[in-house]
Amino acid sequence: MSETSADTSTDTSADRVDVILMKAGRTKIRYPAEVVTDDGTVVTVRAPWAADGVRDFGFVRFEPGDVFTEHYWRDRWYAVKEVRTSTGVLKGWYCDVTRPAVRDGATLTVEDLDLDLWCSANGETVIRLDEDEFTESGLADRDPAAAEAALAALDELERLARGGGSLSPAPPPSGV
Question: Does the global pTM surpass 0.90?
Answer without folding.
Answer: no
